[in-house]
Design goal:
With 98 residues, the protein is mainly alpha-helical. It contains 6 helices and 2 strands, in the order H-E-H-H-H-E-H-H. It has helices at 8-13, 25-42, 48-61, 63-70, 77-85, 89-96, and strands at residues 21-22, 74-75. The protein has a two-stranded antiparallel ribbon with strand order 1-2. Helix 2 (25-42) packs across helix 3 and helix 2 (25-42) packs across helix 4. The protein is globular. It starts with 7 loop residues before the first helix and ends with a helix.
Amino acid sequence: MKFPLLPCSVCLSLSLLGCGRPATVQDCEQIVARITELELKHASVTDPAVVAEEVNKNKQLFHDRAMAQCVGRRVTKSFLHCIDSAQTADQLLGECLE
């Protein structure tokens, strides 16, 4: 079963975050993990083992790109709250990263 990969726009959109504090590796991994979880939820994949495997796979696949385009960018508390509270990947991409 193939799952959708994170769009390149995710990494690029992180450059638009403005003020706040510099994003850490953990922040960037949280974003990748959350989008992956929401995409799997949308695909009705709920098995915790499968979700964990896909999250880890996406973190590895996007590590270099996400770290280059995410770590050090500015993040705010409201941005991180938006990531955590998003109910769909589309909502996260549309509301949090735009």
